[in-house]
Structures are given as C-alpha cells and as structure tokens.
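Recall from the previous chapter that SMILES is a line notation for molecules. Here it describes S-adenosylmethionine.
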Amino acid sequence: MNKAKKPCCGEEPEETSPQKTAAEIKQEIKVRYDEFAKEGGSAEGCCPLVGGSAESFALEHGLYSQEDMALIPKLAINLSRGCGNPTSFANIQPGQVVADFGSGGGIDLVLAAHKVGPTGKVIGVDFAPHMSERAKQVMAEAGLSDRAEFILLDIENPQVPDNIADVVISNCVINLCPCKPCVYKQIYEILKPGGHLAISDIVTRGEVDPKVREYFQSIWAGCTGGAIPEDGYLKIVQDAGFSQLKVVARHTLNLKELDEMASCPGKKFSPTFSKEKLAQMQGKIVSAKFLAVKPKE
Ligand SMILES: C[S@@+](CC[C@H](N)C(=O)[O-])C[C@H]1O[C@@H](n2cnc3c(N)ncnc32)[C@H](O)[C@@H]1O
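With both inputs in hand, we obtain:
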C-alpha cells in the first residue's frame, strides 16, 4: 500500500450536508450498515429490493438472473442492498482481479468470483467491520474463500492499493459518500492502466427544487440523501481521468421503490422521509448503470 498518498479533498472533504460534517455522515453510515450486518440482514423492506423479499425483487426486475440467484447464499441475498447488478455488464473475464467498492454482504463478490474462476481474485472493500465479516462468511458458504480477499477501508481513503485491479464494480455505494471525487480517485488508482469500472448507483435527474434537495441532504438518509445530479456525477468520473464513459441502463424509481431506497438498509436502521417529501422527489431518483475505462499510459 502507498502510505504517502494524499487525500484528494483535504483530510476532511468539504461537501457535506448543510447540517452534518463528512466525518459524521460516514460514521452514521458505518454504524447503520454494521447494525444491519450484525442482524444478518433482512429479506424484507430492503432499499432497492422493493416489495417483499430481496429474492423476489431481483427476479422480478431482472437484476440477477435465476442462474445468478442459484449461486448466491441466502445470507448474501438478505444483506443485499444494491440498485443493479454490475457483474451483469462488467465483462469480467477468467483470471482477472475484480475489486468491489462497498462490497456489503458480498452478493456481487460471489458472482464476480464465479466469473474470474480459480485463477482470478475478488477483493471486497468495505469500511463496516461486521459487514466485511458477513461477506467472508458468505464467500466461505459459497466455497469461494480461496479466491477472495477483503480490505477494511473507507473507499475515499488514499490507502486503497494502486494498480492491482482489472475491473472495479460498485453497487449502490458511492451515493452514500460525501466526497465522490475522492472515491473516483481511488477507483482510478486501484485499477491497472486499461482497466475499467462498472457501476450501479443512485443519481438525480431533472429539476429538483433546491429546498427539497437541501432537505434530503440534511437528513442524508438511505441511498437518496447523498444522491447528486447525474450530469455532475458523470463529470466527476471524467474529471478523475476515465474515458469511454457509457451509461448502459437507467431505471427511474417509483414511489414504493423510492420509499424503500430512502430508508436503506431498512427503516429500523435509517432515518426516513415523510410520504409528502418523497413525493416531491418522485420521478427524479434514478438508478444508473455505467462503464468507463482507465486509459493505458
Ligand atoms: C447500500 S449498501 C450496498 C452493499 C452491496 N454493494 C450490495 O449491493 O448489496 C452500501 C455498502 O457500502 C458500504 N460503504 C458506504 N460508504 C462506504 C465508504 N465510505 N467506504 C467503504 N464502504 C462504504 C457500507 O458499509 C455498505 O456495506
């Protein structure tokens, strides 16, 4: 690891909600997901996994195929809090090294590990210790521990190792991070030249009343409080040095999906918005899936 690397936005990223510092937001998020992991997740009331169980949502929305679902231990399904399936469009090849930023309970680690095969490796990066332990448990249950490594680290942190990954995936995580440029800097660093990213994340689209946006940010709840406009988000990706940026899919959340996304990982763990406030964001919260490449030097 390169210990001499500097943070991209200072020790304490500036962009925060109007009422909380970046450090406070991250601590709240870490505790929230750790508590959720301690309980082993839940098959109900998940953020993007709207209506009923995580499994039914995934199948219903084609996020994960039936073949995918058959490979995933129940624990990983219950801990799953994604908004897409980056392994389905990441073009992962046998023998590659895949890093999952904010790997959570390991659902995408399992699928990526099957794709890289016995000569490849997957690396789960997450800052919540109990979540990371659950992902280890999941990989063991799936019989894939020999091709999995874990790094317990903030993905905004410059201690993330350099030039080791062919592919970086991330599923519904970067919206939670106060300093998105910091995360994309670390994704750039961990990728080998010519490597690529495949991301599923939550963004906003269309006009959002600034007061409504400020209100959402002040609570920083679920996977909507930190969501930023898609065009600004994609500019951050390009400014980090990535090329060949391509949005491969978008899904606009309906009110029910929005309600569950806004209280991710579940109403017991996260602050919630009133139905009235959520209605003001309806049609404007989108799950976007995109690819980009780190140019060869
Ligand atoms: C919404 S869950 C998604 C988990 C997983 N990707 C999935 O699809 O189920 C967000 C995950 O990102 C992790 N996370 C959030 N912010 C992080 C940060 N700054 N550094 C590392 N992990 C982070 C949380 O601990 C949690 O496990």
